[in-house]
Amino acid sequence: MSAPDERGALTPRPSLYDYALGLHRAEPDGRLPEGGYPLPVQPPRPEQRSPRGWRKTSEALADALTPLLADPDTTRAADEVHRRLRELDAREHHVRRVVPDLPLVDEAAARALGRRLTRTGTSAEAVGAGLRLLARLGEPEDIPYLRTLGLLRDFMGTAVQALTPLDRPTAALVWLTGRARNRELRPLVDALAAHDDKAVRATLVAMNLHPRALGPETARRIAEAMGLVDILCADPVDAAVLAQAARLLSRMTSQRDYRPEILSYEQAVSAYEAVVTRASLLSPTLDHCATLLSLALDLHSGPSRLLPWPPGRREALLDILESVLHSPEWSAVADHEPDDPDDQHRTHWIRRTARQPFSARPGSSRLQVEVAVRDPADPDCAETRFLIDGRPLVPEAFGRGPGNSPEYLLDSGRLRATPEPREVQLAEAYCTEGCCGALHVTVQRDGDHVVWRDWRRTASGRRGQPHLPAYRFDATAYDAEITRAEHDHSWAWPARITARLLAAGLRDRPELLTRWDARFGWVGTDFHDPDTTVLSFTFRPGLATGRQDTNGAWLQFLWRLPDDGTPPDLRAAAALRLLETTDPKTFALVGGGSREYAKELGFPWPEGGRG
Questions:
Q1: Which of these, 243, 168, 237, 235, lies nearest to 204 by C-alpha position?
Q2: Averaged over 441-454, what is the pLDDT?
Q3: For 183-226, what is each residue's pLDDT tens digit?
Q4: What is the spatial distance between Cα 87 and Cα 494, in angstroms, rounded to a whole number?
C-alpha cells in the first residue's frame, strides 16, 4: 500500500486546459473572470541536484526540446517534455527564452506537439511551451483552446500572442479580460462575452475615453474586440458612436506606449475612412474639434502616415478634415474663450495648430523638419518630427518613443552640419535610453551635401527595426530647412517661449548658475501645468571653483515660474536678472538627489521623492 505522499504523486492531475474550462463553465451566463483565473497549486519541485545558471539551463532545455519537435509520436514527446522540464528545473523564463527560437525541422510534428501540450499539459511550463509553439504554428482550429487557456492569468499574454494572427477580436477580448477589474472595461467585456451587439454599442457610448483614462493599447484592443469598423460601416451611424470611434483612433496615435498602436491596428485605414468621411455628422464642439485636429496632425506627419494608404487617399482624407474644421461653424469653436483652464489650453492649441496639418511646402527639400504638439488633454512632450522622402523617420526607424524636443535638437544647433562629424540623439524610448534604447545618427557636411550616417540604435530599441542607409541631402536645401525649423516658433505657447528664452540666456551666460555651485539641467514646461515654466539645476559644492567632488553629495532643484501674464521675453529677462544677484537655492525647491544631504543643509525633501 502506498504512503499518502506517494498516492498523491501517482494520482493523475487534470490538465490545465480542463481546469480552466471547468472554472469558466461554472460562471453564470458564461461571464469572463475579472483579471483571469489563478493557476491551481502546483506540486512542489524536487530539489535540484546539479544547480545550473540561467544560461546553462536554457542551453540544456534547447538541446532537450529540439529533437522532440520532430517526434511523430506526440504523446510520447509530450510526456518527455514534462519529464525534461522537471529534470532541468526549467522555469517560465527559460521557456519564454528558448521555445520561440527552436528550429522547426518538421512543422506539422511541432504543431501537433504544441496542441498536445496545451490540451493535456499539467504543468505551467509545459503548457507555456505548447502555447509558444502555437504562437508560431497555430491554425484556426486552435482558437477555442487558446481562448480558454487565456482565461488563466499566467497564460493571458502568451495566449493573446498566439491568437492575434488567427483571430484578432478574440485576442483582444482575452487581453481586455485581463484588465476587466477596471470599472470602465467590465461592462464592455460582459457585453462582448454575451455577444450582445446592442449592449456593446451602449457600453461604448457610455465609456470614458478621455486620454488620461485610456491607454493607447487599450484603445486598440477595444476597437478590435468590438469590430469597430463593422459598426461604423452600418447605416445609419449614431453620432455618439462616431465620436467615440474618433477618440479611440486618436488615442492609438499616441506614442506613450512606445510603438504607436495605430501601426498595430490592422483596420486602421478602414477606420480612418469610416470616421473621416462621416466627420461632418459630428457637432462642432471643442472636444470634437480637438479630436479631429489630432487625427489630421497624425495623418500629416505622424505614424499614421506610414499606414498602407492607396495612392492619394491620405491626402483626400486630410482635405475632408480641412473642409470640416475650417468651415464657419467649426472655426467658431476656437474663437470662444472658455472659463475652464483645461478648455483654455485646448482652445489655444487649436488656434496654434489649426493650419499645420494642411500646410504643404511645395519644393521643400527631401528632409522636412517640424515640431508637433499633441492635444493638451493628452499630456505629452513637444516632439521634433522628421520626414525623409515623405516618410516619418522616427516611428518607422525606431518606434519606441517620439522625436526629441525642439529645445534639444533645434535651439541647441545640434542638427547644423559641419565638416566635423557630430553624433546626435534624435529620439529616446518613452521610458529612458537605458531601458529600451534611443536612435542616434552622425551628421556631417561633405562638400555640397550633408550626410546622415552611422545610425545607432541602443539597447533593445534596435530589435526588429529596418536597416537604415546613409541619407545624403543637398547642403543648401538642408541648411535652409534647419534654419527655417529653428526659427519657426508657431507651435510654442507663452510658458514654453519663456523656457526657450531662459535656456538661450543660460547657454550664453552659464556663469549665472555656476557662480552658485549650480549646473544647468533642463528647462521646459510642467507636464501637468503647461502654463508653468520649470528650470532644473544641480547643486554640487565646489563647482564654481572647479573643485567639486563628482562622487560627492548633490541636490537637484526645480524652479517653477507660473505664467503671470507678463510677455515671455520680459519674464525670461527678469529670471536671468534674478540669477545675477540671488542664489536660486533660496527660492527653488529640491527635486531629487541625496535626502541626507538635503536634511543636512536644511532643505525640505519633496513629498514622494526618492534619494
A1: 243
A2: 96
A3: 789 999 999 999 999 999 999 999 998 887 888 999 999 999 99
A4: 66
Please give the Cα distance from 171 to 166 (Å, whole number). 8
- Three-class secondary structure assignment of 156-180: HHHHHHHHCCCCHHHHHHHHHHCCC
* 106-130 pLDDT tens trace: 999 999 999 999 999 999 999 999 9
Count of residues for the chain? 611
Residue 307: all three cell numbers together = 499606414
- Per-residue pLDDT, 183: 79
Within 10 A of 525 (CB to CB), how many other CB atoms are there?
24
| Separation of first and last alpha carbons in the chain | 62
260 neighbors 254 (Cβ within 8 angstroms): yes
Helix intervals (H) in 28-155: 54-65, 74-88, 92-98, 107-120, 124-137, 143-149
At 468, phi and psi to the nearest 5?
-110, 125
Nearest to 537 by CA among 551, 524, 555, 552: 555
Buried b (16+ CB within 10 A) or exposed e, 12-26: eeebbbebbbebbee
Contact 283, 332 (CB under 8 A): no
Whether 524 contacts 499, CB under 8 Å: yes
Using an 8 Å Cβ cutoff, are 559 and 538 in contact?
no
Residue 444 has φ and ψ, to the nearest 5°, of -150, 140
What the block records as the C-alpha cell of 593 is: 538627489
Per residue in 352-386, pLDDT (tens digit) is 999 999 987 655 679 999 999 999 988 667 899 99
Please give the order of strands across the beta sheet that includes 438-446. 422-428, 438-446, 449-457, 471-474
DSSP state letter for 403: B
Give the DSSP letter of residue 550. Answer: T
Helix 124-137, helix 107-120: angle, nearest 10: 140
Residues in a beta bridge with 474: 449
Whole-angstrom distance, CA of residue 31 vs CA of residue 47? 40
The packing angle between helices 216-226 and 168-177, to 10°, is: 130
- Render pLDDT for 283-330 as a digit per residue (tens, 0 to 9): 999 999 999 999 999 999 999 999 999 999 999 999 999 999 999 999
- Rounded CA gap, 137 and 133, in Å? 6
The values of phi and psi at residue 103, to 5°, are -70, 140
